[in-house]
Amino acid sequence: MLDPKLLRGDLEEVARQLARRGFVLDIEQLQRLETQRRELQTETEKLQNERNQRSKAIGKAKANGEDIVPLLAEVSDLGDRLDSAKIKLADAQEQWETLVSGMPNLPHESVPEGKTEDDNVELHRWGTPREFDFEVLDHVDLGKKSGYLDFDLAAKLTGARFAVMRGPIARLHRALTQFMLDIQTEQHGYEECYVPYMVNRDSLFGTGQLPKFGEDLFKLDDERGYHLIPTAEVPLTNFARDEILDQAVLPMKLTAHTPCFRSEAGSHGRDTRGMIRQHQFDKVEMVQLVEPETSYTALEEMRGHAEAILQALALPYRVVTLCTGDMGFGAAKTYDLEVWLPSQETYREISSVSNCEDFQARRMRARFRHPEEKKPRLLHTLNGSGLAVGRCLLAVMENHQQADGSVTIPEPLRPYLGGVERLSL
RNA sequence: GGAGGGAUGGCAGAGCGGUUGAAUGCACCGGUCUUGAAAACCGGCGUAGGCUAAUAACCUACCCAGGGUUCGAAUCCCUGUCCCUCCGCCA
């Protein structure tokens, strides 16, 4: 959520910045709601004050043994007036909140302007795509022969956009997960966490999935409103919801390996082949809760933490800065890491690292207190994949495939696979 | 699933429906005293919104959440959530 104070200031400027990312702000409506809200609030508080004063007077009179009947008569209609004022105020507040909670974050000044992913700006590349002297297979074909990767079976068990992994591929998947988690905890200083895979609406509102993007989520069919997490960013970032953290515990660096569930509504027909786009995939997520002054340093650092995994796995990739039009709802700045896929001869997203500044923190009232400062301040929140395990698996399979259909295992990963140098599929 | 108990400020813990944003203790901050420290004593010590030049004063809200009763609710009633204990079941 944007700062309400900002929305009382230079609205034209806010609208201009939001327009950069393709969001049209209805300035008039916002101003109207704001004025209305303020008037109703003043009015309501005036009535509340009057009620409080008179009630106190009645209490006093009663204590002195005076007759309170005439005093009661004076307040007879106050209750009704107050009730109707409260209802009007609540209505105005709700309208205002609906509008404001649907506004995306302002892009950071360094974010390139653009409409689609084609306008993203490449920051750098690492590694060189391999030259193959045999016909490259994609991960689907690599896994199909042996049956170690089975989409038909998953379709029978559940439906489209699921996978069954078996044998060496299942083990490789697990090895990658453990490897990533170990790097993030042992080398990059994140605290390993285990979190619920279902969260409530408050958590989803806090990170910005709700109210606008509910259709991307799997909602459980019960009254509690639980949803399956689309990313561990949701539970991890919400650690700080309704908290005032001591400055000494910052930066708080959290990581978790979880499955992620996404309905992929609106992407019918996109990436229907293979593991690229699934309803369920595993991810090692990094989250940092930091002081505002350090959030952009932390962003660069986290990008490095994600890059370290790709480098260790000898996977060529590039980093792009997302343009204003391609960024997520809550992000002020986002880097995507795109790994080379030889079967597609292109780079595909494997990690996304974002600084949300105080946008999520404001939605979830996540604050910290500096011992020298009187008032608590909003945290800055960052999240990044480190990395998406499923996509990483297929990147390893495809990039390190051999003519005989086997896959060589990058050296740092071998300890996680009992020391083997290649997997026969 | 059944039966009970509970939720109050950073923590602990009071609180007959009436001037209670809330006693008291601890912690914390400032001060006095002291060579210094401790102790003692004095003072301060929540969050958010409104109004403001103001992080001043004032006003409003908040004692798990949402409803209700009342002139007035931390206190009474209803619903929900969470926690604890016992029984049953279960990984």
Automatic annotation (TrEMBL):
Keywords: Aminoacyl-tRNA synthetase, ATP-binding, Coiled coil, Cytoplasm, Ligase, Nucleotide-binding, Protein biosynthesis. GO terms for biological process: selenocysteine biosynthetic process; seryl-tRNA aminoacylation. Residues 30-95 form a coiled coil. Its EC number is 6.1.1.11. It catalyses: tRNA(Sec) + L-serine + ATP = L-seryl-tRNA(Sec) + AMP + diphosphate + H(+); tRNA(Ser) + L-serine + ATP = L-seryl-tRNA(Ser) + AMP + diphosphate + H(+). SUPFAM superfamilies: Class II aaRS and biotin synthetases, tRNA-binding arm. The keyword Transferase does not apply. L-serine binds at T231, A232, E233, R262, E285, N383, S385. One of its GO terms (molecular function) is ATP binding. Pathway: Aminoacyl-tRNA biosynthesis; selenocysteinyl-tRNA(Sec) biosynthesis; L-seryl-tRNA(Sec) from L-serine and tRNA(Sec): step 1/1. It is found in: Cytoplasm. Its main location: cytoplasm. Residues 138-410 form the Aminoacyl-transfer RNA synthetases class-II family profile domain. It comes from the Bacteria. InterPro entries: aa-tRNA-synt_IIb (IPR002314), aa-tRNA-synth_II (IPR006195), aa-tRNA-synth_II/BPL/LPL (IPR045864), Ser-tRNA-ligase_type_1 (IPR002317), Ser-tRNA-synth_1_N (IPR015866), SerRS_1_N_sf (IPR042103), SerRS_core (IPR033729), tRNA-bd_arm (IPR010978). Pfam families: Seryl_tRNA_N, tRNA-synt_2b. ATP binds at R262, S263, E264, E349, I350, S351, S352. CDD domains: SerRS_core. NCBIfam families: serS. HAMAP family: Ser_tRNA_synth_type1. Catalyzes the attachment of serine to tRNA(Ser). Is also able to aminoacylate tRNA(Sec) with serine, to form the misacylated tRNA L-seryl-tRNA(Sec), which will be further converted into selenocysteinyl-tRNA(Sec). Belongs to the class-II aminoacyl-tRNA synthetase family. Type-1 seryl-tRNA synthetase subfamily. Homodimer. The tRNA molecule binds across the dimer. Consists of two distinct domains, a catalytic core and a N-terminal extension that is involved in tRNA binding. This is Serine--tRNA ligase. It comes from Vreelandella zhuhanensis. The gene is serS.
